[in-house]
Model the fold of this input.
Amino acid sequence: MSTKTTVGPGATVRDVLRAKTWEIHKKLHLHASFVELFNETLSLDGYRLLVERLHGFYAPLDRAIDQALAGDAAQTRFSYVARADILARDLADLGLDRGALADSPQCLGVHDIVSPLTVGGILYVVEGSTHGGSVIDTAARKLLGDHAGGRRYWAWCHAENERRWTATNRYLEHLRAEGAALEDLVAGARGTFQLMAEWLAPLNRSPAKVEKGMS
Done:
């Protein structure tokens, strides 16, 4: 990646981040757990492991984002919603008790990428994932049924996607107007996608071709 990022006339921060992250972003769509969920071949145990792994990613990330936003008075314009709490409720619905959840591994590598300088790019990834989450909700509903137990997070993504994404893009443009370096935002976004891919890799049992799923 070039150390200098330029923006063409009329391009938004979102345009830049999408262009600079699309290659790694699309690889996450090919993760075996997501492919199997969309193809209706993921077992309930496999689904629980996926949700547990996502909880382990978001628990430390939520805390790091809150700290980064609090570290710069201007960035308190953005109201972040913790994901781990919702995922923990899903895991309880799926039969994982609090003791077992407390012993689950957490992705401490988030502390290497989250800072007041990069948090805008990180939010681009996290809040943008609510769109994919709203699509995943349909697949999770087929696995679990219409009740919310076990799919509260995806249902939340479905309900909140438009509002979260609008607020995020408004915030990114605010950061740009305040002089935030695009290189820092790109580094945050790319780092988040890469770390998530690495964190979910243990569940990626085999290469799979998407037949139904996210586009």
About this structure: The first helix runs from residue 13 to 28. The two ends are 24 Å apart (CA to CA). The chain is about 65% helix and 0% strand. Residues 14-203 form a domain with the Heme Oxygenase; Chain A fold (CATH 1.20.910.10).
